[in-house]
Design goal:
Radius of gyration: 38 Å
Strand content: 5-15%
Distance between the termini: 49 Å
Structural class: alpha/beta
Protein name: Kinesin motor domain-containing protein
GO biological process, one term: microtubule-based movement
InterPro entries: Kinesin-like_fam (IPR027640), Kinesin_motor_dom (IPR001752), Kinesin_motor_dom_sf (IPR036961), P-loop_NTPase (IPR027417)
Shape: flat
Largest sheet: 10 strands, mixed
Oligomer: single chain
CATH superfamily of the largest domain: Kinesin motor domain
CATH topology of the largest domain: Kinesin
Keywords: ATP-binding, Cytoplasm, Cytoskeleton, Motor protein, Nucleotide-binding
Family: Belongs to the TRAFAC class myosin-kinesin ATPase superfamily. Kinesin family.
Number of domains: 4
Length: 717
């Protein structure tokens, strides 16, 4: 019998100065000691501590570390039919929403919900051939007895029946993230750091395993962001909001207190007397795998709330673990298919028995009998059986036409295969010949400027039947055909041309001379411009390399400094635990040798980090100055090249203005000049993100901009 799994984690809110007298953490980061509140008020305290055994204490841990420790292996177990719950609770402003969602921060600092959605869709892609997975999403907000559906626009109050919530099917990760952002924007806040309601985000996973018989699972992953609990003396929220938040925690404690006396499969009596919140999460709370994440502040002011928060996790962990309930459901399609297959197999077996006994003598032949005779004939042709079983199955008047049909079918397949191979060889020969001709023409004379369809681009057509002199090309080029579209990776990048990757241009040019050759001719006539441009480019690349090296060094020193600070903090704790707070003869608190060495290392790393930070700032400023100079000089060179082109195409024949004579510029495919201008303005090429992680990051930032990155929506009651 498989038991459910309950794990209890503690995440400590980072503070400037930690209270090391009232709170102590073991070196293994598994046990935390909290001082008894009555002992603090005594005149002669005895330093009595409560001990709480946890599965992990997160102190100065990043989001990725918390996610890997808490959610390890639970995504795949949810696909196997196990219910999972992640419950973040604690006092107000201790980082619960930061741990669960954190949608207003950078992509790498996102919380558990966006990360678990990413892993679910990656699992679906991995198991695409062996499982059919459907993902649904629901997001409910509980405030007292009021329930709101955050995936709907106002008014979004609903009447909840048991654990049946309105769901929205999500076809991809981007759609699920958009729904999460929409729900977060509709959440009720009384202050920027305080929410007065509990939000339950439920991911419904329906998994049909194609490789397992009758393996159809419908499980849930519930992620609970509890409202912060407060004492009556707190002024962060109104009295009504405090009562609603504390009642949600009280109802949760009530369910846990009665959990051992109630059957997990018959929970109507317990949850009917609780609240809509516990009625919704109750089944998962009693029969699923639970991950509790207690959020605390280790300061004397929060001593009593911290003790209360840790007691809840310890009590839940001590409860006897009931049997784990798998959400397995019979799949009617698989049941029907198995019955049909079994029926067909029995019919074939009966027919085979009749044929082997020689009882078949009728002229009417069913489709099953024909299929059986065909299989026997194929076995005979492949020399798996001899003539005797063939003649015992049926009469020669039926077996011979079947063998002839098999022969014709095989011959047609061979002829079709040979024809396809000859066509492929002929196409390869034509392609090779065409490539050789193109290479010969390219080496013998300059290439023609062609458009994307392979034909020479026509810039304009005259409405009159008179021939327009080719000398008028210069006037047309100056007005319409010198348009180019720069292909950049993003709108924020500097338009630099590096030696490794030159910028690409799209030209509409009617001249037969290749534009690149004109640039080369222009630089041969003005070598000082080419030399200066190359020098600017080299300076920009050198400055960029120096800036990146300085930034990498600063980041590395910052990481080393953080590690040194952690070692210094551990040395403080060890000295406090062994020596206590001893004062030396000079009136200064005594330090251990390990503590003094750690302080020296911190001072040295701080100096190195500050100097590297100043160096990174100076190199960045120098890089920006060089980029500005390079862009300015590059623009001046482009203008000079344009003047040079105008001089080359200077004509003696001056045509009237295009607009005055009714002449329109028309391309080879019939588009007018206005259409070409509009398409060139809109068809700016952007480099696609190379990896899936970069695509997810770009879409995540797009959702933040569309929903307001730093906005908090306040709703009055």
């Amino acid at each position: 019998m498989v038991r459910r799994e309950v794990k209890f984690f503690v995440r400590i809110f980072p503070t400037v100065k930690r209270d090391i007298v009232n709170f102590k953490i073991d070196n293994n980061r598994k046990i935390i000691h909290v001082r008894s509140p009555p002992d603090v008020k005594k005149y002669h305290p005895k330093f009595i501590y409560w001990e709480f055994v946890t599965d992990g204490v997160f102190c100065n841990s990043c989001q990725d570390e918390v996610y890997k420790e808490v959610v390890e292996g639970l995504v795949h177990r949810a696909l196997e039919g196990e219910r999972v719950m992640f419950l973040a609770y604690g006092s107000t402003a201790t980082g619960k929403t930061y741990t669960m969602t954190n949608l207003r921060a950078r992509y790498e600092h996102r919380g558990i919900i966006p990360r678990i959605i990413r892993d679910l869709y990656r699992k679906r892609e991995e198991l695409n051939e062996v499982a059919k997975i459907s993902i649904y999403l629901s997001c409910l907000e509980f405030e007292g007895t009021i329930v709101r559906d955050l995936l709907k626009n106002e008014p979004n109050k609903i009447s909840l029946k048991r654990d049946l919530a309105p769901m929205v099917k999500c076809g991809c990760e981007a759609e699920a993230l958009r729904l999460i952002f929409d729900g977060e924007s509709r959440r009720k806040y009384v202050k920027s750091f305080a929410s007065c309601s509990t939000v339950v985000t439920t991911i419904h996973v329906n998994c049909l395993w194609l490789s397992k018989s009758n393996s159809y699972f419908s499980s849930k992953i519930q992620l609970v962001d509890m409202a912060g609990t407060e004492s009556i003396s707190s002024k962060a929220r109104s009295d009504a909001d405090q009562i609603a938040s504390n009642m949600a925690m009280y109802s949760l404690n009530y369910v846990l207190a009665n959990a051992s006396t109630v059957n997990s499969l018959d929970d109507k009596a317990t949850f009917a007397r609780a609240s809509p919140f516990t009625e919704f999460i109750g089944q998962t709370l009693l029969t699923g795998n639970i991950r509790l994440i207690a959020h605390v502040r280790l300061t004397e002011k929060y001593l009593l709330p911290t003790l209360t928060t840790l007691r809840l996790g310890a009590n839940l962990k001590k409860l006897p673990a009931p049997e784990l309930v798998y959400e397995r459901k019979p799949n009617k399609f698989l049941v029907i298919q198995n019955l049909q297959d079994e029926n067909s197999r029995l019919k074939e077996q009966l027919l085979l028995n009749e044929l082997l006994k020689g009882e078949y003598r009728g002229e009417k032949v069913s489709q099953e009998e024909i299929n059986h005779i065909v299989r026997v004939a194929e076995a005979y042709l492949h020399e798996r059986i001899d003539e005797v079983p063939v003649m015992s199955v049926t009469h020669y008047s039926l077996i011979l036409p079947l063998i002839r049909n098999i022969y014709k079918t095989d011959m047609n397949d061979l002829k079709r295969k040979e024809a396809m191979e000859r066509a492929a060889e002929r196409e390869a020969a034509i392609t090779k010949k065409t490539r050789d001709i193109v290479e010969t023409q390219r080496t013998s004379r300059p290439l023609k400027r062609v458009d994307s369809k392979g034909s020479k681009t026509k810039l304009f057509k005259s409405s009159s039947k008179s021939k327009v002199s080719t000398r008028s090309t210069g006037n047309m080029i100056q007005k319409r055909s010198t348009m180019s579209v720069r292909s950049t990776s993003s709108s924020n990048e500097s338009p630099l041309r590096t030696p490794d990757k030159e910028p690409s241009y799209l030209y509409l040019d009617a001249d037969d001379t290749v534009r690149d050759s004109l640039w080369q001719e222009f630089f041969r006539r003005y070598p000082e411009l080419d030399r200066t441009l190359r020098q600017h480019r080299i300076q920009v690349l050198t400055a960029l390399r120096n800036k990146e090296d300085a930034s990498i060094k600063a980041v590395r020193l910052r990481c080393e400094l953080d590690s040194a600070l952690v070692r210094l903090e551990d040395a403080h704790w060890k000295r406090k635990a062994t020596l206590g707070e001893r004062i030396g003869p000079d009136g200064i608190e005594m330090q251990s040798e390990l503590e003094r060495n750690a302080e020296l290392v911190v001072e040295e790393l701080t100096k190195e980090y500050m100097s590297s930070r100043e160096l990174a700032a100076s190199t960045h400023a120098k890089y920006l100055d060089l980029v500005t100079m390079y862009n300015s000089f590059n623009e001046s060179v482009r203008l000079e090249f344009q003047d040079y082109m105008n001089k080359i195409y200077t004509t003696t024949l001056i045509l009237p203005e295009v607009d005055n004579e009714g002449i329109k510029l028309v391309s080879a495919d019939g588009r007018t000049g206005e259409v070409i201008d509009q398409q060139l303005r809109t068809d700016v090429a952007h480099n696609e993100p190379e990896t899936e992680e970069e695509q997810a990051m770009i879409y995540y930032e797009h959702l933040q901009r569309s929903h307001g990155k730093n906005s908090v929506h306040f709703r009055n009651k």
